[in-house]
Amino acid sequence: MNILVTGGAGYIGSHTCIALLEAGHSVIIADNFRNSKPETVEKIMDIAAKEVIFYEIDVTDAEAVNIIFKNYKIDGVIHFAGLKAVGESVQKPLDYYYNNIVSTIVLTKACQKYGVNRFVFSSSATVYGDNTVPFVETMDLLPTTNPYGETKAISERILTDIAKADPSFSISLLRYFNPVGAHESGLIGEAPNGIPNNLMPYIAQVAKGKLERLRVFGNDYSTVDGTGVRDYIHVVDLAEGHVAALENLTEGVHVYNLGTGKGSSVLELVKAFEKANDIEVPYEIVDRRPGDIASCFADASKAKQELGWIAKRDLITMCRDAWRFEKNYKE
Ligand code: NAD
Ligand code: UFG
User: Fold this and answer.
1) Which has the closest alpha carbon to 173: 255, 259, 78, 243?
2) CA 24 – ligand 2 centroid, Å
3) Which of 11, 96, 128, 148 is catalytic?
4) 135 Cα: distance to centroid of ligand 2 (angstroms)
5) Predicted local distance difference test score (pLDDT) of residue 193
6) What is the pLDDT of residues 244-263, one digit of tens each?
7) Which residues of 14-27 are buried (b: 16+ CB within 10 A; e: fewer)?
8) Beta pairing partners, 30
9) Do the beta carbons of residue 120 and residue 242 sit within 8 Å?
10) CB count, 10 Å around CB of 247?
11) Ligand 1 centroid to 275 CA: how many Å?
12) 2-181+232-259 has which fold?
């Protein structure tokens, strides 16, 4: 299939482009490099030893998006392009609502216009709010605590309504848990701008000596050791989940958790990183981070049953691959 991958130069998008190419699909990337670099497109082609087509466009720009649909016979869209920094979304809500929601509307309108009915959307476990773990797709969604989370919940509702009104649409809403790690080549991975918000890149930068020590946000949650529990999933497993979702699309809207089904605490991740890489990660316990929940992990059985997909890579592999990338990465 010819797949339009929006945000294909980003962290999850780049790994998914490789998985798509390896599965025999053709890839057209649309990205404006707001949070990525053009070199990543080159690296995707190097790793997969295949060409991709690339458009530097903003996917909120309907005219630019329509040109791609006019020029190529698109069979499906995977829509990663979006802004994702929770804290920034509180400071710049309009930027987040506009970018993340208008892009979804522009792309689905182009799909309708050009008769493209396969659509895979990057959603997030954040839409579950503070539900009881494990999170199951059938749960009622609870309010999220920030505009970023709202953009995912609203996009899910828009796509659900579109699929209801137009039964020819096949839409998959993928709720990611906590993607970490990097491609085993060490060539692509997560390279956040500035000080990382997320745990794994923060740990990796402490290990590198770029940051002094990890600040563990609270050790008084009701979890195994008091620190927050999350479902860390290797980004390559996540990428393979997209190929499975795309290849198993059926009419209507379908929601899948993409996680491992297993939660790990902050301190368990620190220990795994130290063990995997034989390196020390100094840390201190500080106050809880506002908006955090105690535990977030998936019931991953629906994706296994319906897509034949499971996450295969363990925590040690995630830590090893994250470190290999960080060690080699030059700003
Ligand atoms: P990322 O920032 O690395 O990738 C997003 C890409 O989209 C970037 O290359 C950016 O330049 C591009 N982009 C943003 N707005 C654009 C626009 N208007 N037009 C064209 N390109 C645009 O982020 P990621 O971690 O790869 O996340 C991909 C998707 O998955 C996002 O929608 C994100 O919200 C979602 N998600 C991520 C996580 C996570 O922890 N990484 C968790 C759940 C959901
Ligand atoms: N944490 C620390 N210190 C840090 C960073 C994080 O202790 O410096 C802790 C957090 O308190 C939390 C855990 O590590 O307990 C994971 O935090 P992350 O920031 O890495 O991830 P979150 O679970 O908060 O959020 C991530 C993405 C969201 C997405 C969500 C889906 O950032 O965009 O996963 O589950 F919605």
Assistant:
1) 255
2) 34
3) 148
4) 16
5) 82
6) 999 999 999 999 999 999 99
7) bbbbbbbbeeebbb
8) 6, 55
9) yes
10) 16
11) 30
12) Rossmann fold (3.40.50)
Per-residue H/E/C for 230-294: ECEEEHHHHHHHHHHHHHCCCCEEEEEEECCCCCEEHHHHHHHHHHHHCCCCCEEEECCCCCCCC
Q: Is 173 helix (H, G, I), strand (E, B) or coil?
A: strand
List pLDDT tens digits, range 105-157.
999 999 999 999 999 999 999 999 999 999 999 999 998 889 999 999 999 99
pLDDT in tens, 76-90: 999 999 999 999 999
Domain layout of the chain by residue ranges: 2-181+232-259
Ligand number nearest to the C-alpha of 263: 2
* pLDDT-derived band at 57, boundaries 50, 70, 90: very high
**Furthest-apart CA atoms within the chain: distance in Å:** 56
- 202 catalytic? Reply is no
pTM for the structure as a whole: 0.98
